From TrEMBL:
Pfam family name, one: HxlR
Keywords: DNA-binding, Transcription, Transcription regulation
Domain of life where this protein originates: Bacteria
Domain HTH hxlR-type: 3-108
Protein name: HxlR family transcriptional regulator
Signal peptide start-end: none
Length: 124
């Protein structure tokens, strides 16, 4: 019998290996509302640096979670969107957002504020 290629103690470890970290879930959450260009993501996530955004987008593309769409025009236009595989994360990302709303309310009450308000409709 062949040895396993990779062993995890729990499936949560496998999940976090792909989308864990400070910025990947945030990037993916924003992409659940449709395609985004680099500049749009920078405006939506003002605390991220361009270097980190580029790195995270590359890792998510490599993992097959998002796709980079390059439009051959002048000036160049690049967009990012979720793949079918990436769309399978939508429900958990939106649940994380709802939990975050509850957490901020419970811990900070009126002294807490969440700037991003999700659109009322989504692509899926």
């Amino acid at each position: 019998m062949e040895e396993p290629l990779k062993v995890y103690n729990t499936a949560v470890e496998a999940f976090l290996e792909v989308i864990g970290g400070k910025w990947k879930p945030v990037i993916l959450f924003h992409l659940t509302f449709g395609k985004k260009r680099n500049g749009e993501l920078m405006k939506l996530i003002p605390a991220i640096t361009q270097k980190v955004l580029t790195q995270q987008l590359g890792e998510l593309t490599e993992a097959g979670i998002i796709v980079r769409i390059s439009h051959h025009q002048v000036p160049p236009k690049v967009e990012y969107e979720l793949t079918e595989y990436g769309w399978s994360l939508k429900e958990i990302l939106h649940l994380m957002c709802r939990w975050g709303d509850i957490h901020v309310e419970n811990v900070y009450g009126d002294r807490g504020k969440i700037l991003f308000k999700p659109p009322t409709t989504t692509d899926r």
